[in-house]
């Protein structure tokens, strides 16, 4: 691809997995590697966009030349993406954001000697960042969400995606199946893209970079 069809556009991409601290040495996290989000940031940059990458925990290097904002938790990610999206034409929420965080973060290590044989953690819901962005979206801004689901049945997966898209209110939802050996830490991906209303607008599989370009084609 030689085109610069995103020249002059400001694109915000979130990537990676958030980490919610339990104590100074432990966190609740997820297996997102950040590969798909980083691929979208690189592809958007190659197509001429000015890119802000909001990076939760990444297992890959962020691309050079993007504005990098590093965050740990869902609340930090919310603050960063809310700020960056004010001037953005396109916001792509690839990050795997924790739905819950520990109700309290201890100042000292949680000790086995105090907890005994079972330990119950109380969690509280994080805000749904994507739904919040959608409710404040400007005219002309394009908002893209992701949904990583373990549902094995393809038609049930699409149904889940349609419900999620409606609940979040984004313009597009990129749906992919994840599992123990699929989706998150892998080099390739297989996605279905739904647009507002629920129609399937694109299906792609291949390297995360090629999938990124196909997703940008849809957005453009
Ligand atoms: O509800 P679920 O976590 O499956 O939704 C996934 C999409 O919503 C992703 O785009 C993710 O970045 C976003 N999300 C969010 N705030 C949360 C949880 C997920 O914006 N608290």
Protein architecture, described:
The protein has 220 residues and is an alpha/beta fold. The chain is 28% helix and 29% strand. The two termini are 14 Å apart. Bound molecules: cytidine-5'-monophosphate. Cytidine-5'-monophosphate binds next to helix 4 and strand 9. Its EC number is 4.1.1.36, 6.3.2.5. This is Coenzyme A biosynthesis bifunctional protein CoaBC. It comes from Leifsonia williamsii. Catalyzes two sequential steps in the biosynthesis of coenzyme A. In the first step cysteine is conjugated to 4'-phosphopantothenate to form 4-phosphopantothenoylcysteine. In the second step the latter compound is decarboxylated to form 4'-phosphopantotheine.
Key terms:
220 residues, alpha/beta, two-stranded antiparallel ribbon, eight-stranded mixed β-sheet, magnesium, binds cytidine-5'-monophosphate
Helix content: 25-40%
Which class of secondary structure composition applies to the elements?
alpha/beta
Q: Which kinds of small molecule does this entry bind, naming each only once?
A: cytidine-5'-monophosphate
Count of alpha and pi helical runs: 6
Main sheet specs: 8 strands, mixed
Low-confidence spans: none
Query: Any idea what the shape is?
Result: globular
The overall strand count is 12
Strand order of the largest sheet: 5-4-1-6-9-10-11-12
Average pLDDT over all residues:
95
Rg on CA atoms, Å: 18 Å
User: What is the terminal separation in angstroms?
Assistant: 14 Å
- Secondary-structure element order, as H and E? EEEHEEHEEHEHEHEEEH
């Amino acid at each position: 691809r030689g085109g610069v069809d995103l020249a002059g556009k400001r694109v915000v991409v979130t990537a990676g997995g958030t980490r919610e601290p339990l104590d100074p040495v432990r966190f609740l996290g997820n297996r997102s590697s950040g590969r798909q989000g980083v691929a979208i940031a690189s592809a958007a940059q190659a197509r001429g966009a000015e890119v802000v990458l909001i990076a939760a925990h990444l297992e890959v290097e962020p691309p050079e030349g993007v504005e990098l904002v590093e965050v740990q938790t869902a609340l930090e990610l919310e603050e960063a993406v809310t700020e960056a999206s004010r001037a953005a034409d396109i916001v792509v929420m690839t990050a795997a954001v924790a739905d819950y965080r520990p109700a309290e973060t201890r100042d000292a290590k949680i000790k086995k000697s105090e907890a005994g044989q079972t330990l119950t953690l109380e969690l509280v819901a994080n805000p749904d960042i994507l739904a919040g962005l959608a409710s404040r979206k400007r005219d002309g801004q394009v908002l893209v969400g992701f949904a990583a689901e373990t549902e094995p049945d393809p038609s049930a997966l699409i149904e889940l995606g349609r419900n999620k898209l409606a609940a979040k209110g984004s313009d597009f939802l990129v749906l992919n199946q994840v599992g123990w050996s699929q989706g998150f830490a892998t080099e390739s991906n297989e996605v279905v893209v739904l647009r507002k209303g629920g129609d399937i607008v694109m299906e792609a599989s291949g390297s995360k970079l090629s999938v990124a370009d196909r997703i940008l084609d849809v957005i453009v």
